[in-house]
Design brief:
By secondary structure, this protein is α/β, with parallel strands linked by helices. The protein contains nine helices and 23 strands. The model has no long low-confidence stretch (mean pLDDT 94). The structure holds flavin-adenine dinucleotide.
């Protein structure tokens, strides 16, 4: 058992419930098990498996099963219990749980010493429409069969595919699709609809120049300053954000990557404990995309931050349950981010945002980061901080 500074365990066992089995939830689970043998963990998640979602765009090359880690396997590996359920969370429930130290799932009452909220960011659920796909569709079916089954129904020689959203997810899907179409020898036009004036706005400006040059090479049309308003049959409804002019263009398949909603995100103090109306709930911790810490560390919605917050709150839960109760503040800053541009190219920054890396070196960094997370899921922690 690894040693944790300022943690002197008390005598009795500690009961922890983790709500959400994504990057943050998995990290809390593995970190608790790394430092303590006297912790009983219950994981609540509506799915049957953990999804390594940072690889989702790669399902144009690999089966979706490669990205799924069944919770039943994790139960055996870490000696925890998984309950397949979705918990309704709001401010009133959080206050109630803090005071009761139990929650109800169906007919079962689950007692806890600590509750962890790690439910991720909520994605917008657009009105269902024919010829429109969203991230949720790719979470259920791999990219290659999904795209092929849609294209089979289109009776034109050169169909048009529109990708809406020029954040990291939209761009990663765009380039994977382009190269998938080349491999499959499918003739189709690909266009990017972007509400902003450049792509990947949350990253250094060098990302935009690199991506633009690659889009030209791959003959991907880019429509900046363009608002998506919907899809009807085989047409996409758009608005030019500068002139306000509405437009309709052919689109036989439209893929929406519109980012996450800013709802269901709770504030926390620098130790990761939820605060409701400025009042700390000392036995309820939060991590990942659903949290904003009042701290010096990064609140970016990324797997990196989710993992670092997860590690921190696991350590703080143990310290809080022990004799000293000295907690550690959240100070983590992301040390890089890489965006894939298909199987053989990527653009990213490393150490400082001015240090931009592209091509194979960027791909290698991404591989290392992903391998580190895979090891964590095996119970091997290689993170230095
Ligand atoms: C295609 C793609 C590529 C990405 N690439 C990168 C990357 O390269 N690097 C990077 O740092 N980040 C990347 N990200 C972002 C990263 O995946 C997220 O920031 C990260 O998953 C957040 O982790 P989380 O644990 O907060 O949420 P999630 O991983 O989304 O997990 C949330 C979990 O909570 C469960 N849940 C939700 N609601 C409830 C409920 N009410 N009750 C119980 N359980 C619930 C869900 O089923 C899910 O298992 C990428 C995202 C996508 C979509």
């Amino acid at each position: 058992m690894a040693l944790l500074p300022f943690y002197i365990p008390g005598k009795r066992r500690t009961n922890v419930i983790i709500v959400g089995g994504g990057y943050a939830g998995m990290t809390v689970l593995t970190t608790l098990k790394q430092y303590a043998s006297n912790v009983d963990i219950t994981l609540i998640d509506p799915n049957t498996h953990h999804l390594k979602i940072t690889h989702l765009h790669e399902t144009f090359r690999y089966p979706l099963s490669d990205l799924r880690v069944p919770f039943s396997e994790l139960e055996k590996r870490f000696g925890c219990r998984h309950i397949q359920a979705s918990l309704t969370i709001n401010d009133a429930m959080l206050r109630q749980w803090q005071s009761d130290k139990y929650l109800a799932i169906g007919n079962e009452i689950l007692h806890f010493d600590y509750l962890v909220i790690a439910t991720g960011g909520e994605m917008p659920e657009p009105e269902p429409a024919a010829n429109v796909l969203t991230l949720q569709d790719f979470m259920r079916t791999a990219g290659s069969p999904l795209l092929l089954s849609h294209l089979e129904t289109v009776a034109v020689e050169e169909p048009v595919i529109s990708v809406v959203g020029a954040g990291a997810t939209g761009i990663q899907f765009l380039f994977e699709i382009r190269q998938f179409l080349c491999r499959q020898k499918i003739s189709a036009r690909l266009r990017l609809i972007n509400a902003g004036d450049h792509v990947l706005t949350q990253f250094p400006r060098g990302f935009d120049s690199y991506v633009q040059s690659r889009m030209q090479e791959f003959k991907i049309d880019c429509m900046p300053n363009t608002q998506y308003h919907g899809q009807t049959d085989q047409k996409i409804l758009l608005e030019d954000k500068q002139s306000g002019k509405a437009d309709t263009l052919p689109s036989h398949l439209t893929l929406l990557f519109l980012g996450k909603k800013q709802e269901h995100i709770w504030p926390a103090n620098t130790f990761g404990q939820i605060t409701i109306d400025q009042k700390i709930l000392p036995h309820i911790f939060i991590a990942g995309d659903c949290s904003i810490y009042n701290a010096l560390g990064s609140n970016v919605q990324s797997a990196q931050s989710a993992v670092r917050k997860g590690k921190l709150i696991a350590r703080n839960i143990l310290r809080h349950s022990g004799l000293l109760k000295i907690l550690e503040p959240y100070l983590h800053h992301d040390i890089g981010y890489v965006v894939n541009l298909g199987p053989t190219d990527a653009v990213g920054w490393l150490v400082t945002q001015g240090n931009i890396v592209t091509g194979l070196p960027a791909l290698a960094i991404k591989e290392i980061v992903e391998a580190q997370y895979d090891l964590l899921l095996m119970g091997i922690d290689t993170y230095v901080i």
